[in-house]
Amino acid sequence: SYQCKLFNLLGVIFHEERNLTKASEYYKLTYDIARKTRDIAGQRKSLHNLGLVKSAIGEYHSSLEYLNRNFELSRIMGYPISIALSLNSLAVLQTRLNNMGRAEENLHEAIKINEKHNNTHGKIHNLYNLSRLYNYKEEDEKSYNASSSALELVFELQNEDARHIWICYLGINFCRQKNLKRAREMRDIFSDYIKKKTDHHSDEYDNYFNLLEGFLSLIKLENFLKDKKDDEASNDHIISIEDKAGTHLNKYFTENK
Description:
With 257 residues, this protein is mainly alpha-helical. It has helices at residues 2-16, 20-36, 40-57, 60-77, 80-96, 100-116, 120-136, 140-154, 160-176, 180-195, 202-226, 232-255. It contains 12 helices and no strands.
């Protein structure tokens, strides 16, 4: 219904603005209307959104309940891409709940579905989350391989904006893996791209760049401290790296309050 679509849109707007309480209220209104009108697709979408916003708030068990209900409706509807999306969202939450085995199973199942239906964007998202999961488990080689597989697919994307946003996110993943060489490669590609951006999205890209550059500086600092010599030059270098990391991360978090 029109009202259902309107409330869902308002929920998305508040979600993007990080007003999570308001977003939750509108998603719940959307779900109630969809249920009354027996709109299964509307129920599925609003349950998924409720699961995401509850996870962002930190209400993980409530989030799990919504996402499980979303998954069941996706199965009933029989939409493969919706099932894969549900599995991906469940896996992200299960990783936060330290249920790594189940999260890994769900991501591999989502990858199979997305491969079968040529959903490149979905598979990239699955591989990115799989890389993060392996990073949490300190399985560095698996984490790197998942990021590298995702990157191969990213370079195939026709949409330049989507391609470069993923390059930035994978650069952050390479930072987590302490692979500064690959992280710098991603930083340089992304930096060259945003220098050409003059549209209304340019500030958003600067924001992503600040996050990646901040991560890079922190990893550089961590590596330097391992081999630190106790002299004035070393101390000055540490202060310089700290200042750079602080500048970029402060800009990022100021924009994302």
